[in-house]
Amino acid sequence: MAQIKVEQPDGGDPVRTFRVVDDDGVSLWYRSLGRNKKSCAINMRAPEGQQLVRQLAAKCDVIVENFRPGVMEKWGLGPEVLRADNESLIYTRVSGYGQTGPYARRPGFASAMGGLRYVNGFPGETPVRANLSIGDTLAGIHAALGILLALYSRQKAQIASGDGKGQIVDVSIYESVFNLMEGLVPEFDRTGLVREPSGTSVTGIAPTNVYRCADGKQVIVSANMDSIYKRLMTEMGREDLMTAEYGTNQGRVRHEKQIDEAVGAWVGARTADQVLERLNAISVPCSGIYSAREIMSDPHYAAREMIEQVDVNGRTLKIPAIPPKLSETPGHTDWAGPDLGTHTREVLRDLLGIRDDAKLRQLADAGVIGLAKSQ
To answer: What InterPro entries does this protein's entry cite (predicted)?
Structure first.
């Protein structure tokens, strides 16, 4: 099954230049993000380009678009048009706020509206964000799940009646973020409680926090289950914190500051390696805090083969491997994110039967398609 990424010929996906770029000016992130996709450069603003996309969609199982609502309709590529040509098409739409509602056409920051930004950071301070595009990634995961559900529904209909129609999958970034918000809504509905940012700990669960070690490194220790908490306190020699008053999570939350100080003092007297060795030995959840440096050198990452090496124009590049791991059909990277237009000729030839080089060159010269520099 081929994944065809249709991009504008004049620059392509903006992610191609995001974050750290390689010597060739292409984002290293894109080389990972665009893996296994065939880059087909077509100008969707041009009528001839729109016709090419329409012909491609007629031969596809799924189309995914992430323009602001109304853009695809303006180009004559909305779901009504494409599904009229291909009634089995799964038409997936990813946008900030969804295809309906008063905010549908707004640009914006969906992680803020989804509730994530508010609970990040420290009480009374400006909310912070992780240095990652979490909302976009979550929307992609929800889109993939929605596509699988739609494909399964279509397959069931085909088996039952021989006539499996597609459907529209409407994914919003803010709802994908909102879906992670645990008990935020029922807590507020029943009690009026607004969950606030909690810094390095987790509200209502204790002890769970980040602690500084004697060597300056930091570790996370979480002993929120009763039996785990007892093992931790026994290791620390703090029988005074093991009375009935501390026997449940609710009781420990009432004494969270006292427990945190005790754990912090115990951790602070030891190096990170010593803390992790002793706590892992008694099955208390703990971890160092990994940067890219620790990830790349960690033996567990290596044993799980979570870092793989790909070729990028004759040079090797390490990128994350593909989870989850399937026992019979594991995912793997066939090629890194390709240069813009690498597969334009191949896609138009194999799917649309356009084999005339002169025709392709004419379309390229007119700005309707883009061909890779090597072509």
So the answer is: CoA-transferase_III, CoA-Trfase_fam_III, CoA-Trfase_III_dom3_sf, CoA-Trfase_III_dom_1_sf
